[in-house]
Design goal:
Helix content: 55-70%
CATH class: Mainly Alpha
Number of domains: 1
Number of strands: 0
Structural class: mainly alpha
Order of helices and strands: HHHHH
Largest sheet: none
Shape: globular
CATH superfamily: Leucine-rich Repeat Variant
Strand content: under 5%
CATH topology: Leucine-rich Repeat Variant
């Protein structure tokens, strides 16, 4: 599915104005990155290949932008993905108080 562009489709949907659509896309991205993490561990890869693909299609930048979204669930999900998978964590910006979780 990754080879057929599903990750790119999920990333494009992050530009939606509908928070539910964004949440479903974030869930899909999270699941893909989980699979990539497991794949990397099973094959002794130094990094998640799907994280790299996410970066190549500007998904990381879109996830960072979502941290400024008014919807708390969207912010939380985007933040969790960036943190959980150490996706380019050097430039993370948090627009809300994490203690809200």
């Amino acid at each position: 599915m990754i080879q057929n562009g599903i990750l790119k489709c999920f990333v494009k949907l992050l530009d939606s104005q509908d928070p539910k659509t964004i949440e479903v896309s974030l869930l899909g991205i999270d699941n893909i990155l989980k699979c990539g993490k497991q794949y990397a561990e099973n094959n002794n890869f130094p990094e998640n290949p799907f994280s790299k693909e996410l970066d190549n299609i500007n998904g990381i930048e879109r996830l960072k932008k979502l941290q400024g979204q008014p919807n708390l669930n969207v912010k939380r999900s985007a933040c969790n993905i960036l943190q959980k998978f150490n996706v380019n964590s050097t430039n993370l910006i948090f627009y809300f108080n994490i203690s809200l979780f």
